[in-house]
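Quick start: read one record
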Amino acid sequence: MNQRDQFLKEFRGQTIGSVTEQSSVDEVFQNEVLRPILKLQNDLFIASFIDYKIKNKIDFNVLSIDKKLATIENTIQKDIKFRNTLKGMIIGLFTSDDYLLYTKNETSINKRMISMLIERLKSQLQLLEL
């Protein structure tokens, strides 16, 4: 393992969630790689979304809670440039082995990654209203 990969594994921290022998490859990847990275990058995701809504003149504070939740989901699902930026914030913290696994299961991992990110932002709605 090279220095970068070793540093990233230590920097990201421990596995979040359970990993058993019955866990699928995607579940293991989710709990060992994605969850720690999402937790580590949380403040950056929040800052990015706040910046996005300011630049796109989205008056988030006047929306109902349901509309705010829908706005978060629609923004990430439909704005490909913004979604790719968020994905880059995650993929940039992959080790070489993580990236190889990612390329083999890119579609399913992307769905998992984006879904987890949307839920993470929705659960922190109060921080996005600032």
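The longest helix spans residues 106-122.
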